[in-house]
Each structure stands twice: as structure tokens, then as C-alpha cells.
Amino acid sequence: MVVTADTDILLETQKMNDFKGKTAVVTGGASGIGRCLCDVFAREGMNIVVADIEEKVLDVAVSELIAAGVNAIGVVTDVTEPKSVLALADKAFEVYGNVHILCNNAGVGIKEAARRIWTLTPNDWQWGYSVNVMGAVNGISAFVPRMLENGEEGHVVNTTSGNGGCYPFPTTPIYASSKAAVTSLTEVLHYQFLMDAASIQAHLLYPGPHLVNTQILASQRNRQEAFKDDDEVEDYLSMEDLKKASVGQDVEFKLTEPAEVAESCIEGIRNGQFWIRPYIDEHQEKIKARCESLLNNTNPILAG
Length: 304
Description:
Elements lengths: L22 E5 L4 H12 L3 E6 L2 H13 L4 E5 L5 H15 L4 E4 L17 H11 L1 H17 L3 E6 L2 H4 L7 H23 L4 E6 L5 E2 L26 H7 L9 E2 L1 H13 L4 E2 L4 H15 L9
Parallel strand pairs: 1-2, 1-4, 2-3, 4-5, 5-6, 6-9, 7-8
Helix pairs in contact: 1-9, 3-5, 4-7
């Protein structure tokens, strides 16, 4: 079945204007973009379920929210494990009755900027995809059936990246391809919600327009034993690694703060946007160049 602008199945864009008393679940919610998402949802009077693999940081985040008068709970969650994400869903629905916003936000970065695709290990690939892609899939599988059953307006927000979600940086094969996968699966989710006349809307959150100032630099701290190699690459990424990864990006290496991304997210939900993508002219031109390459059957060129 093809869904087009002329198909009767297309629904009027959903817009959530009243957040008060509703419930948001945020994976990777104890720090970075996830922590700021919790703050903006809390500001709107929502109940907050913070999910994160780091228990100590999670406890601090939840304590801060509660101290600010927010109805919040924390659930230690490994998004690579379906049972762990199901347990998160069980707790959220048990405590608050329904979930109205699900943010599949947990993500990791791998030290790959100075390496080639053929030197990356199976564990590198499995870890990156298990968190960045299957984390979103596990969230959808655990939450969406119950959200649909409850029949209330809902929103599923998957965090992607301009890197892979628009065009790939040539130095980040795992990260870029995983975010390309998240982008495609979220578009499919959007169409399937339309096909079923569902009360839920899908969204793609693009952090940016510049590199976001988060702890994704230190993702290795949470790399599970199952995904570790005997000879590990150095534990942490550095800003120099990210500069290498940002071929063709701003010379000044500008940063976007996670709070800016969170504000974009809530406004995107409020406005019923599928693409929640802050942009600058440079990005627009690169997206156009990539699309023209596809349409004209010309070879991709190196950005920069």
C-alpha cells in the first residue's frame, strides 16, 4: 500500500497543546539531551519517567526533578535488552496509567573517526546498532501497543542525527549508518500510524544545527561486557576526534547546547512536526546536493 498526499487515509496533523498531567518516558534521560527533555516536559506539568543505564546519574536526575516538585520516577534500563525495556514500560504504565510521549533518545558514539570500515570489529557494530537502532525498536515494541490500546493522543520521538539522517560524515560509518536506519524506520512508523488511523504520531528529532555538547564523547563508559573486545580501542572520544568526524562542517566547530534541542523537541511536538530539524543554510545545500546526486545518478562527493 502506498501512502501519498492524495490518500484518504492521511489524517489531520496532530498537535499536543495540553501536556499537564500527561506522562513522558525518556531513555538516556539522566544526562545530555535526555535530561533536558525531562526538564522541558516537567515544566509543562508532565509526569516524568527517566530511563538510563547509569544508576548513580539516574538517581541524581530523579532526585533533582522531585526536589523541583515534579512527579518523577527512575528506572534503570538497558535499551539493548527487550526485557529491560518491557520492564520500563510495565513500570511506567503501572505508576501513571498511560504514556503520552515516548522519547527513544538513548544513543552512543564509537571511537571510529580515525578508523576505516574494514577495521571496525563485530562488537563495535553490534554495540552501536544495539543501542542506536534496536534501542528505538525495543521502545516501540514495548510501548506502542499499550499506547494504542489506551486510545489517547500520543507521540513517539526517535532521536536521529543530521549525520546519517541527512547525509553521512565519511569518518563515522557505524554512527552515520545507525542514524540512517533510525530515520528510515521512523518514516515507516509514521506511515503505519497513518495507515491505521492511529492516535499516535511519530517524530524525528535532529539535534543541532551544530554538534551537541553532551557526554556522547564518553559513551564507552557504558559499553556492556557483551559488546567489548579483548583489545579495546581507547576508552573515550575527544573533541579532536569529533573535529575529524566533522569533515566539511563549520570551521569554528560550533556547539549546540542540549537545552536548545529539548526546546526544539517540545515545539515540534506542539506543532505536529514529523521532521524536528533545526537547520542552517550550509546543511540545506548539502542535503540538496545529496538528493541531486541520487536523482541525477551522479557519484556522491566528499562534503567540504
